[in-house]
Predict the structure.
Amino acid sequence: MSRALSNSLLTLAGLLALVQSVHANKPLPERPARTQVAAAQALAIEPDLANAQREGGRLVWRHTVRIEEAAFLKPHFVDLNLRAGDYLIVRSASGRVVERLTGRGPKDAGTFWGLSAFGDTLELELSMASTRSRSPFRIDQVMVGDPAMLAAASGGSYESICTPADFEDVLCYQGDAEKWANVLASVGVMSVGGNATTGLFCSGSNVSPLNYVLTNHHCIEDQAECTNSEFVFRYYRTGCNDGSPANGDWVSFRCDTTVASSPYEGACEPTLTQLDYSLHSVMGDPASTFGFVNVDSTPITSGEDIYIVQHPAGRPHEVTHGGGANVVVDGTTFRYYDTLDTEGGSSGSPIFRDADDALVGLHHCGGCSTPGTGNRGMLMSDIYPGIESFLCTPALSLSGTGATGLAEVDGNGDTVIDPGETWELLPQVRNGSCGTDAVNVQADLLLGAGSAPDVTLLDTSATFGDLAAGTVGPSQSSVSFEVDVSAPCAGEVVIDLVNLTADAGGPYPDDPDHFTAPIGDTPIDTISTEDFAAGIPGTWSIVDGGTGAGAAATWTTDNPGGRTLSLAAPFAIADSDELGTGETMDEELISSTIDVGSYSTVELQFSHDFNWFSGGTDEQADVDVRSGATGGSWVNVANYSGADAAGTVMIDITAQAAGQSDLQIRFHYYDASFEWWWAIDDVFVLGNDGLVCSTGAIFADGFESGDTSAW
């Protein structure tokens, strides 16, 4: 099969671009290389519940992972499924809590990459309210930070695109309040690189008190990559150009949702339709701790002084400066030369105007020649219209933003809201203004329309005091509610926040459903899971209904096309492009029979990457199920066609599966003739029987562990 090699040797963020092997008449957009800072190692960890220790009425299992000289460790969790009252704490080498996991983890994914723990040690602490019959998770691999990062963090030699090197440690600017604020709000963008299983690094910045991070589109291209990315704050050296080591720990937040983007399609010279940016919401509230940068919609002009805050080559944060003849605005291209060095890992770096410390550009391409190419980026004045709705406002802007501090005041102690209990929480309000403080913020609270009839709100107002611009604040005292013993299990507690005011104005828009929580808990069982770690199981079946032969003829876990996806290898893939011209694909991947007979609710979850080719025959990707409930016939529950699709998918298949002992799942890729591919991974079948309530005291006899102190 003939292939053409791309001849372009673009330098993006200081790296040579990947030279991709593609079909001559169907090239993929040029994908630049990002700085690799880690590689995965196999790691088999599963809690030994029989040896969990009884501590204060709970069962606790602890485990330490240490990999000598690792810069950081990032675990891959498989089938996390914790019961109510259970939690898993991950700590770094310094003892800092990296994250506290409950349920099925972020977005109920079950299988996912954890946040990265700085240093060579990972501490795991599983705490359970009672004994469990099965292990609630396992770890199958860990991303290990490249030891070279440690050398760089300890003052190793700099490497620059344009000699001499002109990078400076950001701590040199700690005495400049505005520049230091921009440093704190700038981030590293850590991504997991698909089947290559590599940790990749870019740069970015938090551009809003509403927590939106801006980086290059080529750093995070879509929702699937967002799901596997984290934003790293507080990673800089502890000295000013003196070879000091990095600070003892960084703080990470997960990428949540891709909300706006403009593509990169292989050209360093941006156009208004190819601005190489992506904007992402964040899980958590880093703005309250690290602040945000001020985005300027006014175009910068040639000759102005600028500086770039970046993670060159994945090193701790550094700064480069320049101005005069070295700063050129050339239409939609922002060029900068000489002292304004960048390297791989600098992609997505914020560019600030020196005079007022406003964000005026976004770096994305490297080079040294002048005039002509040089380091290049996009003007924020061009990007601004696409992200304006996600930024702060000059005027005072208050809004409810959920609640914190949910705690049981009077109940059975199982961490679940049950009938007959009293609970409290702290409502939160956000000041979304760029520069106007809110004075004497107050609000009223009332039960929402969807709240159960036997819920009583014991406090109907909240005072928040003064809120500085761009901050989130909880109420100064708790708000309590009581669930009557007669309240229905499976009802909800719904609290609305209304009449939000401050001395300078209001009321601001009401926040319906400011807080919602179910009465009772829904224990979810993992009925079946398949991650293709050992290839396609022999209990599954493959139907090869197309033509052609060889490794790419049908579904396989061998990845014959060498696709770098957001899925963790191995995964199942049907690759029409790799099969080649003149052949067709009509390929079925069918699960073994799954017994879901004891469940009233059944859900199918899987991760996938469907890469659609616009110039072909409109290939189709179907998800079908069959069981006794469908009369044994395949019923379609999802179809992908006409556009790319990727990420984790959850589908309710209760109507087609509940109460049946013969459920099967089919992934059907067809009408594909020299198209792209469809890849599948982490297939779960989950079951539950709805909300369950407990109105009695929680009691553990302790016999299994020998702890009879409760008797």
Observations:
- Residues 1-25, 150-161 have pLDDT under 50 and may be disordered.
